[in-house]
Design brief:
single chain; alpha+beta; SH3 type barrels; Glutaredoxin; six-stranded antiparallel β-sheet; 14 helices; 11 strands; 16% strand; binds zinc ion
Length: 403
């Protein structure tokens, strides 16, 4: 059975494919690298008129992150959505007066409601704002409030954890968009609209292009209606810890991609992005204050990894995991690849934290739209951690002893 947490790379693969098609028609020759503008709110505001992949005409105000030699663009709009515009799709790109600024939470809520209304019929949508999030939902307010509180706790815990570990994160530049839908039918419909229908098998997904996490009401899926109060939410979600883990996992991707740990549309190795999400994913449902479970041994992943080692793991497994994302994208290898990514991340954070944070910093500084050269990926890794066969031996020894 496919692990329902495997959805995010599907989305990422689609994003990558979209970019490869951009790169295929847009010349980024090695002699003249794409010119990259600095991501800052002082960037000039542009209005870009183009035809999208479905041949619809669009005018999107935003900032240009990358301008290719032939005029293709990577554009970020004020909601934080990324648009790839090939030279052929581009109609006109004109600077506007003023500088780029993200939408305010109120504006983002309205934009999300518009987006969902254009995607289909989702009933009565309402926006809820919190410190870092804008949640648009058509389900019971008790589940929305419970989710918002959990997301804020996760955000704070994640950032405190990495600050203590020596990796400085920053506040998200954009309010973080989250959609919570009442029924699985609606959730499936939006996943299809987002071009990631396989995501509908899980309880949530992070869409890298839109910077959006989409969730389904965990309390409404089996009952006749959404939970009426927080106590009822807590009682219902405790029956489904794996579903809550998926929510935490997807929300962790969103935080990591918005606080300076990973860059969207840069070459983030999937073992690392997934390893980070799995390191955090154990939900903390008991504490209202702290978040005690970051880094707890993930028993499901550990069991899977031990089974993999005993029966299927090849001698070059670590190398193939580091060099390419391919094992995550195939049904028959994905679960083992996830377990190995968890094992490697857990091992490195617990035993090589200083080297790990230095490696994170190197990956966080990767340029946009330049995709993994396998040899470079390997060199980045061994440059941070040393000889691969030593790491593999120590990893296996460490995982054998782990309880
Ligand atoms: Zn993931």
């Amino acid at each position: 059975m496919i692990d329902d947490r495997n959805r995010w790379p599907v989305t990422r693969r689609q994003a990558t494919l979209a970019l490869l098609s951009l790169l295929g028609t847009t010349r980024f020759c090695s002699a003249s690298q794409p010119k990259e503008t600095v991501e800052s709110s002082a960037a000039p505001l542009h209005s870009v008129h183009f035809r999208d992949a479905e041949n619809n005409e669009r005018t999107v105000p935003g900032r240009v992150l990358v301008r290719a030699a032939d005029g293709g663009l990577l554009l970020e709009d004020r909601a934080g959505r990324l648009w790839t515009v090939t030279a052929e799709q581009l109609v006109i790109d004109e600077p506007l007066n003023g500088t780029f600024s993200p939408l305010t939470p109120v504006e983002l809520g309205a934009a999300l409601i518009d987006e969902l209304n254009s995607a289909g019929s989702f009933g009565d949508l309402k926006a809820t704002q919190s410190g870092h999030y804008v949640v648009v939902s058509n389900t019971g307010q008790a589940f929305v409030d419970w989710t918002v509180a959990m997301l804020e706790r996760l955000h704070d815990a994640f950032r405190h954890f990495w600050a203590r570990s020596g990796f400085e994160t920053h506040d998200p530049e954009f309010p973080l968009p989250v959609v919570i839908l009442q029924s699985r039918e609606q959730f499936t419909r939006l996943a299809t609209f987002d071009h990631t229908p396989a995501s509908a098998q899980g309880q949530g997904y992070f869409l890298i292009t839109a910077n959006r996490t989409t969730l389904v009401d965990l309390t409404a899926s089996e009952a006749a209606s959404s939970a009426r109060n927080i106590a009822e939410v807590q009682r219902l979600v405790k029956r489904h810890p794996a579903s809550v883990a998926t929510v935490v996992h997807e929300a962790t991707h969103q935080i990591a991609f918005n606080c300076g740990m990973h860059r969207r549309y840069a070459d983030n190795p999937v073992w690392l992005t997934e390893g980070i999400a799995m390191y955090v994913e154990t939900p903390d449902l008991n504490s209202r204050r702290g978040w005690q479970t970051i880094g707890r041994v993930n028993q499901n992943r550990l069991l899977q990894f031990r089974d993999f080692v005993a029966k299927r793991r090849k001698s070059d497994s670590l190398q193939t995991l580091l060099q390419s994302n391919a094992r995550f994208a195939q049904v028959d290898t994905a679960i083992d690849a996830y377990s190995e990514a968890w094992a490697l991340t857990h091992f490195l954070i617990k035993t090589r934290l200083r080297d790990f944070t230095a490696y994170l910093q190197k990956i966080a500084a990767q340029p946009l739209l330049q995709w993994g050269d396998p040899e470079q990926r390997l060199a980045d890794f061994t440059g941070a951690f040393g000889d691969l066969s030593d790491i593999d031996r120590n990893l296996q020894q460490y995982l054998r002893r782990l309880a």
